[in-house]
Design goal:
The complex is a heterodimer of chains A (583) and B (176). Chain A has 24 helices and 20 strands. By secondary structure, chain A is α/β, with parallel strands linked by helices. Chain A folds into three domains: 163 residues, Rossmann fold (3-Layer(aba) Sandwich), CATH 3.40.50; 153 residues, Rossmann fold (3-Layer(aba) Sandwich); 173 residues, Rossmann fold, CATH 3.40.50.970. In chain A, the strands form four sheets. In chain A, strands 3-2-4-5-7-6 form a six-stranded parallel sheet. A six-stranded parallel sheet of chain A has the order 11-10-9-12-13-14, sandwiched between helices. Chain B folds into two domains: 94 residues, 2-Layer Sandwich (Alpha-Beta Plaits), CATH 3.30.70.260; 69 residues, ACT-like. Chain A, domain 2 (Alpha-Beta Plaits). In chain B, the strands form two sheets. In chain B, strands 5, 6, 7, 8 and 9 form a five-stranded antiparallel sheet that branches. Chain B has a four-stranded antiparallel sheet with strand order 2-3-1-4, with helices on one face. The chains are: A alpha/beta (583), B alpha+beta (176). At the A-B interface, strand 6 of A face helix 1 and helix 2 of B.
Amino acid sequence: MKNPSSDILTEKEIPATASATPLSGSEAVIRSLLEEGVDTIFGYPGGAIMPVYDALYHYQDQVNHILVRHEQGAAHAAQGYARITGKPGICLATSGPGATNLVTGITDAMMDSTPLVCITGQVFASLLGTDAFQEADVIGITAPVTKWSYQITDADEIPEVFAKAFYIANSGRPGPVLIDITKNAQVALMSKEFRYTKCKHIISYRPRLQPKQEQVELAARLINEAKKPYLFVGHGVLIAKAEEELKAFVEKTEIPAACTLLGLSAISSDHPQYVGMLGMHGNYSTNKLINEADLVIGLGMRFDDRVTGNVAAFATGAKVIHIDIDPSEINKIIPADAPVIGDAKAVLKALLPLVEKRERNDWLAEFKELDKEEYEKVIKEDLFPEGGQIKMGEVIHRLSEKTAGKAAIVADVGQHQMEAARYYRFKQTDGYITSGGSGTMGFALPAAFGAKVGSPEREVVAVIGDGCFQMTLQELGTIWQSELPVKIIILNNNYLGMVRQWQQLFFDRRYSFVELKNPDFITIAKGFGIDGMKITEREELDSALDTLISSKKAFLLEILVEKELNVFPMVPSGAPVSDIRLE
Amino acid sequence: MEKLYTICIFTENTLGLLNRISGIFTRRRINIESLSVSETERKGISRFTIVFKSDEREKVEKIVRQIRKIIEVLAVFGYEDPDLVFNELAFFKLDTKNAAGAKQLLEGYKRAKVLFEDEQILIIEKAGTEEEIYSFFKQLKPYGILEFVRSGRIALSRSEKGLAQYLPEAEWAYNI
């Protein structure tokens, strides 16, 4: 039986964060991770990180290390984990090529504001700058694509630097941080007691969470005055976990709400105020009516060029409220009449009592009217084709129904990404994980198992094109070895479909190096111990999806889809959003 | 029209920061005209003074906001020339055989003096704005300039606001 009073005594005598015997740097690394509540590491060992791996060996009961097949996979897996849990994803890699292989994933995380803590080994401090074996200037290479980075050369620095790294990665606008640790710092014993204090404040870094009241008041006034306000919902809402506040806000104001690619699932696709997706392959109404609005509200989004099209012709009749936690986004692309700096949740909470309850049925009806046109010209044929080969859209539509809109869809990059974004009906938050800003092909397979590790209860379905799949297919090995029940759909058109679409539309059908001679994906999956099935006919689709979903283990479903399918609607690159084409 | 802008950046004194700051200029393809870095009156705090040209004030404001995002950056201010008191320092190396003429020229100039002289060479120091230094350069040229070096601009704003406003003394002690 435990004696509670003695527990208190013990706690006083030896704080949980301190260790009496000196720790090696490597052990301090693992202990620091544990202090931050890390339960999962995605990594790949190698020479310069071996001491950390040796320390990890003794902590296998506390940390789940997932051995990837390529460090890029570790970075994307950590992204998938971070996006679904809201906690930083952890990557561990060796020096030189191990570290440089992370760079694509780090860049992707930077673009999409995803918190990562990347730990890389480095050569002995005494060898730095001498072109030692597997030495690379990782701090220099990653400076433009990390929120923060630091090179540790002394074991004593470890707890403090890790605490700082975790705080920076997951506060304010989240992003990737990198800690490079020289081998001597890993093997050396700390000269002082290991003491871990979580970082809560950095003098030179003060993200503003609470908005300034006068900014909120001005925004509220513009909202109350507007006849046709229009809300753009971005990733910031998901990061801030502000879904409830968003729902309350749109229900009170009845402002039509559209999501950016990364904002999808912040509001249910079935919500009456939800009007669809913004962007180059967003909906017809959502793009067309941007220039009809008299007020646009960017909420946790950054007016990316795939959303604005030609900036000069964007929201020409509208005042702009820009709500973002990152002050450098304000006026970067679209000048804001009312900037509000703050966390999306805090801003919505502050706005809610100040905005007036309104009915906006007429304005909403304008969206519904254009939706009919899109349905007739695009959606009907995409979802309910009467003949021909299977279409990507109908696969997503059936998948959406069979998973009740509650799966986490992890999409790669290209046509299938846009079709998944357009036709999955998101009923649960964090339902769409994809590479938005970077558009990194090969993202989905590793990100999907990262998401599955982060949220084992959730159905995770990777939607991948045949081109993307071949960029990181070795990660099937990781899925196999770690026994992760990830569901994989390959939408195979034997083309780099999006590039082919552009060549068709803008390069007079000169199909320059976009046709793929593909391997037998099912044989490959089987080689990795993963069951799979290939279908080519519409009649097989339902039962194949049922097999995929009901499988208790990882499963790969390859679907041969229409070869020259095009994704519409489409705003041609650099054109005004109102020039959106339906065909 | 292109104008000169000066950005003053106050940072924690850490490795690799220059790389991060210069990266912001490189990405936007802006050429840095001059750069100087030194410790400030506060312990552990460095001051960067960066001069560059831009055709739009708005672009400068965007750069200022991006630099502010760097974690170790404490404060960033952008200025146009009338907001500042600024100067540079230049050294000129001449052959000693031309010393007499050059020295005569010095008499007509403020803040110009001989810094070093031996049988071979004469080194003249001139302080002033970029313009003043170049006009002095032109005058000195006939005497044969062997070598010339200019420091980056250093500048203080004309406003009474100082760093103290941003860096509480409790957290950042004075150096001296």
